[in-house]
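User: Can you predict the 3D structure for this chain?
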Amino acid sequence: MREPNFSEAQLQQSINTAYIRHVWETEGDWIFAHVPSLIDEHDLGWDSAFHFPWADHPANPDHEGCNFFIQYKLSGQLTSSGAKEWADWNEEYFRFKIPHSTKDDKGKFVDGYHQWDRLKELADQGYPTYYATNSTLSKSDLQTSARAGTLLDETPLLDVRGVHASHKHVTFTAKSNFFLLHSEVERSPKNSFRGVVQTILEEKSSSFESSTKAIIASLSQMSERNEEWRSDISRIIQLAQDNQARPQRVWRQYMHLTSFVFRHIGAVLLWFPDNR
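Assistant: Here is the predicted structure, written as C-alpha cells:
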C-alpha cells in the first residue's frame, strides 16, 4: 500500500484552516477549532470540534461546548489486483482503518474501538460527526489545493450517523461518490466539507420572524370555539400590518404573543428565536 508523504496532523491543520476560512466567508463567523490532547482525545473520540452558534444542534457541555465533530484518518492507496478489497472496485482505491491499534492485557496488539464508540455516541445523539480523510498521497497536491481554495471539495467525509455496524476498513476511489465499509460490506455516501457546511446551513434555526409566524399560525388553529382566543389572536396577526419598521413590528408581535400564551395557557414563553 502506498502511503501519503504527510502526517495526519498536517491534514488536520490544512483542513481546519480551510474550514475556518470558508465559514468566515459564508457566515461571517470566525469559528474556533478545538483540538484536544492525545489523552483527552481518547476520552472524547474526536480530534477536532467546532461550535456553530447558528446550527440547529445544541452545544454539548461534555464536549467543549461543541456541536460539530471530526476525526481525521490517513488513507493509503492500494494499487494491486491482489489487494483485499480490489474486487469491490476493480481499480486503484484508497483505504483507512477505523479502529486504532492498542495492547491487550498480554501485551498483544489488537484493534481498539473505543474511539469509534465515543464518536458513535455523539452521532446517535444527532450531532454532525464525521471521519475526514485524504484523497491524495502528495503533500504538494494538498498545498496546491489549499491555495486554490478547492481543498474542502477534495476532502471526503464519512458521516458516522449513517453507519449502522462496526467495521475495520473504509474504502473509496477518487471519483466514487460513496464509501464501502468492510468486512460486512456497508455502503455510505461520500460527502465533501463544503457540502456538509451547506447542509448544516439549511438545517439551521428558523429566523425570528418566521418562527413567530409559525407559532401564531398554530395557535390560530386551536380552540376555534373560544371567541376571546380568536379575538386576541386576530389582534396579534393585525400587528403585522402596522406601519412600524419591520424589526419593531416583529418584536411587538412577539411581545404580544408571550402575553397571549401566559393569559390563555398559563405558561411562560421562554422560547427565544434566533434573529440571524
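The chain has two domains: 8-203, 208-265. DSSP finds ten helices and twelve strands in the chain.
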